[in-house]
Amino acid sequence: MSTAFADVTASDSTLRRFLHGLPGVDAVGLEARAASLGTRSIKTTAKAYAIDLAISMIDLTTLEGADTPGKVRALGAKAVNPDPTDRETPRTAAVCVYPDMVATAKEAVAGSGVKVASVATAFPAGRAAIEVKLGDVREAVAAGADEIDMVIDRGAFLSGDYMTVYEQIRAVKEACGTARLKVIFETGELSTYDNIKRASWIGMIAGADFIKTSTGKVGVNATPPNTLLMLEAVRDFRAQTGVQIGVKPAGGIRSTKDAVKFLVLVNETAGPDWLDNHWFRFGASSLLNDLLMQRQKLATGRYSGPDYVTVD
Amino acid sequence: MTSPFEYAPAPESRSVVDIAPSYGLFIDGEFTEAADGKVFKTVSPSTEEVLSEVAQASSEDVDRAVKAARRAFEKWSALPGAERAKYLFRIARIIQERSRELAVLETLDNGKPIKETRDADLPLVAAHFFYYAGWADKLDHAGYGPNPAPLGVAGQVIPWNFPLLMLAWKIAPALATGNTVVLKPAETTPLSALFFADICRQAGLPKGVVNILPGYGDAGAALTAHPDVNKVAFTGSTAVGKAIARQVAGTDKKVTLELGGKGANIVFDDAPIDQAVEGIVTGIFFNQGQVCCAGSRLLVQESIQDELLDSLKRRLSTLRLGDPLDKNTDIGAINSAEQLARITALAETGEAEGAERWSPACELPTSGYWFAPTLFTNVTQAHTIARDEIFGPVLSVLSFRTPDEAVAKANNTQYGLSAGIWTEKGSRILAVANKLRAGVVWANTFNKFDPTSPFGGYKESGFGREGGRHGLEAYLDV
After folding, report:
1. Domains identified in chain B, total number
2. A151: distance to nearest CA of chain B, Å?
3. Helix (H, G, I), strand (E, B) or coil at B26
4. Is residue B252 located within the same domain as residue B338?
5. What is the tens place of the pLDDT at every residue in B75-114?
6. In degrees rounded to 5, what are phi and psi of residue A287?
7. In this predicted model, what pLDDT tens digit does every residue of B170-223 receive, in sequence order?
8. What are phi and psi of B369, to 5 degrees?
């Protein structure tokens, strides 16, 4: 990647010129397109497929100051066996925890194929020295994290210092070793679609394996338009470079209906190649139980209720 | 690309609409047979299934209807505006209440996707009645002096592409200003107008204020020629519009004509590409391109032509063509065999004249009238498909080098109904829009409609404006 875009990242000014030379985003048009895809009617077999796919794409997440080993173990058990009444239910893609919980999470999902993702780089604010951020990453990787969810330096981005954002991603990528890197933009703080598009390209050029909307810790998290925009970015990046990059909307996706809308966006924007948890994830926690209730409803023809899915 | 995520059929239920096996003409508040007893069949263009048998108006029926409208005019025009508004508000609300039924009906009779009738046609129909209901008691303030007078009986002939919406565009301002109406819907799409007749009765509209005469061109000609018609409003082809203009020349009938178009959708190199692609798709494939203001000519700046066409082709490959009642259908059926033949012939002319034809892989249903989304590249101003209105899902792609050239090419047409500009540069939008001779110019969007906005054409696209405050003038003696 670094070679293909060597001229772009040669200096502050070349990077800025490249990012500001990307085609603009018309907010009204983008939102209208996302809304229009949101009217797709996904029924019966298509719904069943979408529900199982969505479950398999969840990064089941707990990111609280109050997280304990017990809580993380329960989360791991849920990821491995989401619906104890139906062992055919797919496992989630990963559990997502803070670095100090990685070892516990690893143990909880051992042998299941469920990955352990860890937020790092002074999540969620990212306001720490780069050495501290890299230390955070190394600790998580050393504890066995399969995936690292980093936050970009939004302060640097908003002050126009794109090079710092780029270099920090590169440094974190290196610290990841073989762990896959998800780069969180905190789209709610970047505020404009043009900014989200530019951040997406910085992330992709810098070697992100995934680009991710949000931490879930601010007012506006994943929305259909910002995810649509990022799906367009990874589609265009692959067309240009041959390199496929994943997308992860996170925060605020709570219902099956919402999740299905996101999968429609994936299907009709990036395309079917992204309909796989290697390339698309949902950062979510409460979404899983709604998907399970809908799954039970499709199987039995009636709604069960919150007492028929596990609360962890 | 086949996807493992195949959308299962999601058809809207037909049971919400009850189509009678036969319908009469609606004259003086009653459904009645045609004087000569003639009927015609209306079919669903997506299946060729006969939906109903409808009375066919002749000149004798036109005369009956105009007389009924004349009788009703005296009382109707004498009502205070606020009273006329009450009827219009009531009609608007009934349309909203019955919108699902009317959307399914329109989709069956016209062939357009339920997504469009549900999300575009019906909301706009109701909005139009609400909007003009609001004007009825404020005509003193419309800019035409105190107490502007209505014209009398309006003879209105509407097309098949937006049957109920065109009815709303015609009837709402006519009634708000105190005129009475005889309206002839198109022969391929009479049903929603007949359901509207029922809505008029449901709303308690006085007899004779609205008369609906399903029929063919002869009935339309008899209506526009009728000596006791004071106002002629026509939306349809330029050829028929010219005939009407000749017919009413020398009479004191007031005329508005909304005719053909060959809209240019101009994409500059600094356009928001992904949204421009959506706008191009909306511009030419909305309602299968059977839209007078369609963006049927894509003018793209040469420096981004290849990139834009790649994106556009990729996008066209995701369009879903099929059962118009399926909620996931993007492209429905062509309205009639006749229209399909016209589109087919023009597309063949495009090929014969050397333009390059492309369509996405797309399976067409075996019954009904269907045409795959099509684009032509290597098109020049000299090609027939760059000049003639195709009125179908066929896009002609031309390129330009400079803004001046874009404007020159966009204006180099006998028509002047619509145009689109795509650029992130606001000053360019304003500069180019001022030079385009088109009734509507959209910036970074296309095919957006609103009852508050006037709509109409330059040159052979017609004259007079419908919609907005301007739309009142066509129905007032000013």
Report:
1. 2
2. 27
3. strand
4. no
5. 999 999 999 999 999 999 999 999 999 999 999 999 999 9
6. -55, -40
7. 999 999 999 999 999 999 999 999 999 999 999 999 999 999 999 999 999 999
8. -110, 115
A236, part of any domain: yes
Longest dimension (CA), chain B: 66
The residues with which B462 forms a beta bridge, in sequence order, are B258
The DSSP call for residue A121 is: S
CA B33 from centre of chain: 28
What is the distance of C-alpha A127 from the center of its chain?
20
Residues of A with CB under 8 A from a CB of B: 23-26, 28-30, 32-33, 39-47, 49-50, 53, 232, 263-264, 267-268, 271-272, 275
Catalytic residues of B: 258, 292
Token pair for residue A35? 């809304």
Nearest Cβ partner for B10 among A29, A41, A49 = A41
- In sequence order, the 6+-apart residues with CB closer than 8 A to the CB of A198 are A19, A20, A22, A162
Q: What is the pTM of this model?
A: 0.96
> In this complex, do B119 and A39 lie within 8 Å of one another by their Cβ atoms?
yes
pLDDT at residue B345 in the model: 98
- Interatomic CA distance for residues B112 and B267, integer angstroms: 27
Look at the alpha carbons of B335, B341, B342, B347 in this order and tell me if their dihedral is positive or negative. Answer: positive
The CA distance from B231 to A78, in Å, is 72
Q: Which two tokens stand for residue B302?
A: 């040469």
Does the beta-carbon distance from B6 to A268 stay under 8 Å?
no
Domain housing B133: 14-259+458-473
Residue pointed to by tokens 């045609």: B34
Q: Which CATH number covers residue B381?
A: 3.40.309.10
Provide the H-helix boundaries in A27-146.
Answer: 27-37, 44-56, 69-80, 102-109, 130-142
Query: Looking at the domain assignment, is residue B105 inside a domain?
Result: yes
Q: How far apart are CA B335 and CA B43, in angstroms?
A: 10
Same domain, B378 and B241: no
C-alpha to C-alpha distance for A163 and B189, rounded to whole angstroms:
61
Query: Contact at 8 Å (CB) between A99 and A143?
Result: yes
Q: Characterize B291-323 residue by residue with b for buried, 16 or more Cβ atoms within 10 angstroms of its Cβ, and e for exposed.
A: bbbbbbbbbbbeebbeebbebbeebbebbbbbb
